[in-house]
Design a protein that fits this description.
The chain is α+β, with helices and mostly antiparallel strands. It has helices at 12-27, 59-76, 99-104, 162-168, and strands at residues 30-38, 44-51, 84-89, 109-118, 121-131, 135-140, 145-149, 153-158. The strands form two sheets. It has a five-stranded antiparallel beta sheet with strand order 7-6-5-4-8. A three-stranded mixed beta sheet has the order 1-2-3, with helices on one face. The chain is globular, with a radius of gyration of 17 Å. It starts with 11 loop residues before the first helix and ends in a 7-residue tail after the last helix.
Length: 175
């Protein structure tokens, strides 16, 4: 079972949805990476997940999560009216929403956007150096190491590079 602090941080409607669906997803052997709601007329609820065993994420995983989460959201009814559910893997150029994501992908290029400017800027790009519960760290392109309060990070994600592709490629089978 996963502890609350290991889940990604969400607020408002996305927070209520995450709170409702995370226990079900975790019970099924998955980890919640992100909940995002977009659109006004017919909102789209995007659930991004990983397999807890770190095995490759499949279409069948998406289907299983979609059925389970759809049932939970039908009961919880956090969005009035019609809405659409999308379930996906975090992908290669994944969002960095949890401490474990920052630490797992330390050494790879990442970009982040802040809620409140730091040193006069809201956007930063550099090599992920890891994180703890309060702070995420990047080595900027000029070699400067910077720390960012996790609560001030609006969004952060990996940047697709050849190194990242090589590091996340499935191992080849040899006979």
């Amino acid at each position: 079972m996963f502890l609350q602090h290991e889940r990604p941080q969400h607020e408002g409607l996305e927070g209520r949805i995450a709170e409702a669906v995370a226990p079900t997803i975790e019970h099924m052997g998955y980890e919640l990476v992100r909940v995002q709601v977009s659109g006004k007329e017919r909102p789209v609820v995007q659930i991004m997940a990983d397999r807890a065993d770190e095995a490759p994420f499949t279409v069948e995983d998406c289907e299983a999560i979609s059925h389970a989460v759809g049932a939970v959201l039908d009961v919880e009814d956090p969005i009035k009216g019609e809405w659409t559910l999308e379930v996906s893997s975090a992908g290669i150029d994944r969002p960095l929403t949890r401490t474990k994501d920052w630490n797992r992908f330390a050494g790879h290029l990442a970009q982040l956007e802040l809620l409140v400017p730091q040193e006069g800027r809201k956007r930063f790009k550099g090599i992920a150096l890891g994180a703890d519960a309060e702070t995420a760290r990047l080595r900027l392109e000029d070699g400067t190491d910077m720390s960012f309060p996790r609560g001030n990070i609006r969004r952060a994600k990996l940047v697709l590079t050849d190194e990242l592709i090589a590091a996340t490629a499935a191992p080849t089978q040899r006979n």
